[in-house]
Amino acid sequence: MNSVQLESEDGVPLAVALSERVHWVGALDPNLRTFDIILKTANGTSYNAYVVRGSEGVAVIDTVKEGFANDFFARLESVADYAEIKVIVLNHLEPDHTGALPELMKRAPQAQLFISQKAQSMLKGLLKQDELSFTPVVTGDKVSLGDRSLEFLHTPYLHWPDTQCTYAPEEAMLFSGDVFGCHFCDNRLYNDKVGDFRFSFEYYYAHIMRPFKEYVVRALELIEPLPLKLIAPTHGPILRDRPQHYIQRYRQLSSPALHNELRPNQKTLLIFYISSYGNTRRMAEAIYQGAMQIEDVRVSLYDLEGGEVAPFVDLIEEADGLVLGTPTINGDAVKPIWDLLSSLAVVNLKNKLGGVFGSYGWTGEGVRLVEDRLRGLKLRVPIQGLRVKLIPTDDEIHECKAFGLELAQELTGARESRVINFADL
């Protein structure tokens, strides 16, 4: 049988047993097509919540989106009385996980709420209640349910500052929050029963976890040593078949590939440009030649007119420096540059080197606008952008080479400090 019984014969939602002591009490949202404005959900999503029963009480781990609270409470009531609930755990405070919390706390006022250290102020902001009883926890903290227990893992920024994971050692189950999740609704629930959700798993990682790769790696260091029979995320299939496979995939997605191709201490500088009449292209080529003078910098030159944006994002994510060349048209940088910049929101650019250059006909605002955007993306822009009016002269080509050299020197720490005249900015 491939089906999982989610309702009784008369249509009442039922809990699903993951083991004798653990049940899924979540809700399905198959008709959702956009999540948080930015994510497409071709198969809808699920809001996964769980119940763990011990000899001395019951724990509820996460809840559901408010509009699906009735399903959650019906499933919860099918396996537990409210008076038995000793513990409520929130791995993440986003509304799709906390929507049923206020009502749950009313129905089980004796339950103690456990949240991460960083979730404290966020909880009050979400529930708008000044008097809340809760216990903040960090990695290593535990709560006992008698013959079952829960251990907490501090996994911040996956994908909010408050996120954590909860581990049930006696069950070898990880309640992972958004980690290892995806927006894929299938009433068969388990990864070995549902349809092919690989695209959704990868898409979710790319848009939710990718900007926080360094935090993914830290979380994996906590998770990889754990004995695991099952991973129970808050969205998407429950991973009972080869759960380690999904951990390994996160490790692969979070590990830099470029570093294996570089010499020790070698830096990488990427130059992207778009050119209307060849003038910005000539500048780009000269900047490339200048940067190439530094042996420890691997320099690459790309014409945006000849490539798709997505592969460039992958390159930029692992590079040390990013230089953009744009003409100014109608007082602005051109669309391919903005398309590339808008795609960079999914990667971590903090403290990468940034630089901008371009040819212009009238006033040349494009370079300054792109510089501002790079700073907004947390790149360092220590060298003022280079602008050339119309066709670059031989002297201006020489300036471009010097500009490239200076950028490469900045990457290697060989550039001399300068006093900036703010009147020139």
Automatic annotation (TrEMBL):
Keyword tags: Flavoprotein, FMN
SUPFAM superfamilies noted in UniProt: Flavoproteins, Metallo-hydrolase/oxidoreductase
Gene3D superfamilies membership: 3.40.50.360, Ribonuclease Z/Hydroxyacylglutathione hydrolase-like
Keyword hit for Flavoprotein: yes
InterPro entries in UniProt: Flavodoxin/NO_synth, Flavodoxin_CS, Flavoprotein-like_sf, Metallo-B-lactamas, ODP_dom, RibonucZ/Hydroxyglut_hydro, Rubredoxin-O_OxRdtase
Cofactor: FMN
KW Flavoprotein (keyword) present: yes
Domain Flavodoxin-like: 269-408
Family stated for the protein in its record: In the N-terminal section; belongs to the zinc metallo-hydrolase group 3 family.
Name of the protein described by the UniProt record: FprA family A-type flavoprotein
The species this protein was found in: Methylomonas fluvii
